[in-house]
Amino acid sequence: MAATNIKEQWSLREWCRMYGTTFTRAPFTNKETGEKFNSLVWSHNGGLIFVNFSQNLGELNNKEMRELKEQLSVYQVVKESGEMGFSLGKTGSINGTEESLDFD
After folding, report:
1. How many alpha carbons lie under 13 Å from residue 11 in its C-beta half-sphere?
2. Whole-angstrom Cα distance, residue 104 to residue 100?
3. Which of 73, 95, 91 is nearest to 18 (CA)?
4. pLDDT over 60 (residue 2)
5. Which of these ranges, 11-15, 34-38, 61-65, 96-100, has the smallest mean pLDDT?
6. Neighbours of 51 (CB within 10 A)
7. What are the tens digits of pLDDT across the range 10-45?
8. How many other C-beta atoms can be found within 10 angstroms of the C-beta atom of residue 87?
9. What is the DSSP string of the chain?
10. 78, pLDDT greater than 80
11. What phi and psi, each to the nearest 5 degrees, are found at residue 27?
12. Residue 4 — pLDDT band, cuts 50, 70, 90?
């Protein structure tokens, strides 16, 4: 597995203030392993922002995300190849329907 470096980090609360609490859960398949996984997708300024679940965290449902919201961060990561992306993981460490997180 290629090494990754963290370029930037936002708490999940900060991320949702910037990009909103409404997202879709989009299914994907890893081209190398054939493993199926979901990515969270935010629509922002006419584009899409994909956030994968970190392998250490695993995939969370909305209830789990709400329960752990103070412990989660979104990381901008840079792979060894130079490819950039976003990953949801613990701080310090789908079905195509829109979903929303209620932080109140």
Report:
1. 9
2. 12
3. 73
4. no
5. 96-100
6. 20
7. 999 999 999 999 999 999 888 889 988 889 999 999
8. 20
9. ---EEEEEEEEHHHHHHHH-SEEEEEEEE-TTT--EEEEEEEEETTEEEEEEEPTTT----HHHHHHTGGGEEEEEEEETTS-EEEEEEETT---S-EEE----
10. yes
11. -80, 140
12. low
The answer to whether residues 29 and 40 touch, using CB atoms and an 8 Å cutoff, is no
Tokens 């963290």 sit at which residue? 6
Both tokens of 79, joined, read 């792979």
Q: Measuring CA to CA, how many Å separate 39 from each of 58, 82, 104?
A: 11, 20, 24
